[in-house]
UniProtKB/TrEMBL annotation:
PROSITE patterns the UniProt entry points to: GLYCOSYL_HYDROL_F2_2
Glycosyl hydrolases family 2 sugar binding domain mapped to chain residues: 95-211
UniProt EC number: 3.2.1.31
Species this chain originates from: Pedobacter polaris
Domain Glycoside hydrolase family 2 immunoglobulin-like beta-sandwich intervals: 214-304
Protein name in the entry: Beta-glucuronidase
The keyword Hydrolase is assigned to this record: yes
GO molecular function terms listed in the Swiss-Prot or TrEMBL record: beta-glucuronidase activity; carbohydrate binding
């Protein structure tokens, strides 16, 4: 009985302490703040039994009375009698940012806990606030500074930060992260996906030094439907009234000063007439400064409008065709998450070579740097959250998690002109709990940002030779956007698929979010032979013929730019843990179908000039 009481107490204490960790909302444009990079070599310990987290009764050390005992203490043996069964200093190192799977053969298929530690020096000043910022950790991160827990974060693709003011030491500090990429049914994504579950600290880590009343978030964008009215929003980290904030765009001779209200906020609209609008053809970005008495934040922002009208997508008021391709956050040549600007540029450059004006960054938020590059290179973006396949639709915690990831994505990327679509998910199976889950996500996206389109990659079904789209979620979103795999998973050989026609319930622009088929780069045969480049080429030709029958067709992002790693793809000759639907192979060679799509996009470019 006593034991049960004790256990209940521990559970209550642990719930209490989880909720008391300081959760701060995302700091906008971290790169432009005063930051110390904590990237580089981190020592790591692989911990499949979570030995550094639980004691031998499986109670977490960080919930014990002393709060210590775990690997986050980062202890070293003081004398020869002392027993310590771990040692970060003597453990191997890996690169951060970087997934662990691609850095050690032993970890290629590993799913579980790895502890990572970085030491750094700091000289904290008394009137400043300090934060550790993570671009992304997959999936669950427990973060400790100098042996004290800062907090927990779930979600593998969105940024988070913890305040360390008063916790940072002058001199050497030890930052320890327990990263756990175990797949679980109630998480976002769930246990089943078609991509590699890369674990670790996959994006930048910074220590940020900010003034006491720092600017936490800001937005500068055109309001919905206007090409000359700007909306300027600022949120200070605290409710300081009367702070003057100036927004300036020297090139436009624009300079305006506003004062924060009682909540520490500014939300103002004003007209400016000489703005050159951003488009893929002319990706005009303006140098923008946002200044307060103690801060000077630099950004590069483009301005454009996006809306739908009947079957058309209007960019800056003009009907466009989205010449797109889907992309995963993975470098096919080195098989790992994209690690640097060079990696990201390579992917987007390939899309440009295909004459794309649009990319689908599937199936989760990509790096902030990727979206900034799209801004710079002139590529429109579909940005997505990993609400993928069969999620736990009825679990409120799962919904809260999905909503948080969507919110963090929108908060992070709302100043990027390239982003035109917030996607709330991919191929989610019809049911009424799913419909309310997804409808609520759609509403969340709209309430956070009413200037972009909201969409999801839906599914179709068939009756005879008719492909039908009537998913009720179609009513709540702005595009008829769906995946269909005619010629690969169903519908016969590529030449047989042109018999299909479409029955689409909604009068909205149709954007095909996926079609495709696998081809092993360099394998040549006739066009009915699976896995050959000729099969994939014929599939693309016939898909284009079939899809061109849809009057409302306004774009597509075939699946996918490059081959990518997937544990679901096990054919020993043709797949070998690779999904081969790439138009570019894992050696960087363009397959035949690449040129079919390029040709089609050249025609569409002329048609929509
Ligand atoms: C899909 C999924 C995508 C898969 C693809 C495939 O429908 O959205 O994540 O990788 O099919 O290759 O089967």
């Amino acid at each position: 009985m006593l034991k049960l009481k004790y256990r209940l107490l521990i559970i209550c204490l642990s719930l209490f302490s989880v909720s008391t960790y300081a959760q701060v909302s995302s700091i906008q444009n971290i790169q432009s703040r005063k930051i110390l990079s904590l990237n580089g070599k981190w020592n790591y310990i692989v911990d499949p039994y979570e030995n550094g987290f639980y004691d031998y009764r499986h109670d977490p050390f960080d919930q014990s009375k002393s709060g210590s005992g775990g690997f986050y203490d980062d202890r070293v043996q003081k004398d020869k009698t002392e027993l310590i069964e771990y040692n970060f200093d003597l453990s191997p190192q890996m690169n951060v940012p970087g997934d662990w799977n691609s850095q050690s053969e032993k970890l290629e298929l590993y799913e579980g806990t790895v502890w990572l530690r970085r030491k750094f020096n700091a000289q904290p000043e008394t009137d400043k606030r300090y934060f550790v910022y993570f671009g992304a950790v997959n999936y669950e991160a427990h973060v400790y500074l100098n042996g004290k827990k800062l907090g927990i974060h779930k979600g593998g693709f969105t940024p988070f930060q913890f305040e360390v003011t008063g916790k940072l030491k002058a001199g050497e500090n030890s930052l320890v992260v327990k990263a756990d990429n175990t797949r679980k049914p109630d998480e976002i994504p769930t246990i089943n996906t078609d991509w590699w579950n890369y674990g670790g600290i996959t994006r930048d880590v910074f220590l940020a030094e900010l003034p006491a009343h720092y600017i936490n978030d800001y937005k500068l964008q055109l309001i919905k439907g206007s090409n000359n009215t700007l909306n300027f929003v600022v949120k200070l980290a605290d409710a300081t009234a009367g702070q003057e904030i100036t927004v300036a765009i020297p090139e436009l001779k624009l300079e305006k000063t506003f004062t924060t209200d009682a909540e520490g906020k500014i939300n103002q609209q004003f007209q400016w007439n000489k703005i050159n609008l951003w488009s893929p053809e002319k990706p005009k970005l303006y140098a923008v400064t946002i200044k307060s008495a103690n801060e000077n934040i630099q950004d590069k922002i483009g301005f454009r409008t996006i809306e739908t009208s009947g079957n058309n997508i209007l960019l800056n008021g003009k009907s466009i065709f989205l010449r797109g391709i889907s992309i995963h956050d993975e470098n096919p040549l080195l098989a790992g998450r994209l690690r640097s600007e060079g990696d990201m540029r390579m992917m987007l450059q390939w899309a440009k070579e295909m004459n794309c004006n649009y990319v689908r960054l599937a199936h989760y938020p990509h790096n902030e740097e990727m979206v900034r590059l799209a801004d710079e290179m002139g590529l429109l973006v579909w940005a997505e959250v990993p609400v993928y396949w069969t999620i736990s639709w009825e679990n409120p915690a799962t919904y809260a998690n999905a909503k948080q990831q969507l919110t963090d994505l929108i908060v992070r990327d709302k100043n990027r002109a390239s982003v035109i679509v917030w996607s709330i998910g991919n191929e989610t199976p019809l049911s009424s709990p799913r419909l309310s889950f997804m409808s609520n996500l759609a509403e969340t996206a709209r309430s956070l940002d009413d200037t972009r389109l909201v969409a999801a990659a839906l599914e179709v079904h068939r009756e005879g030779n008719t492909i039908i789209l009537n998913d009720p979620l179609g009513e709540k979103i702005d595009l008829v956007s769906f995946n269909e795999y005619a010629g690969w998973y169903w519908g016969g050989t590529p030449s047989e698929i042109t018999r299909y026609s479409f029955n689409i319930k909604y009068n909205k622009p149709v954007v095909i979010t996926e079609f495709g088929g696998d081809a092993l780069g360099g394998f040549h045969a006739d066009e009915n032979t699976r896995w050959s480049e000729e099969y994939q080429e014929a599939l693309y030709k016939n898909q284009i013929t079939m899809l061109s029958k849809i009057d409302a067709l306004r774009g597509m992002t075939p699946w996918i730019l490059t081959d990518f790693r997937s544990p679901r793809r096990q054919h020993p000759v043709y797949q070998n843990f690779w999904n081969r639907k790439g138009l570019i192979s894992e050696t960087g060679k363009k397959k035949k179908a690449f040129f079919v799509l390029q040709d089609f996009y050249n025609q569409m470019q002329v048609k929509y000039k």
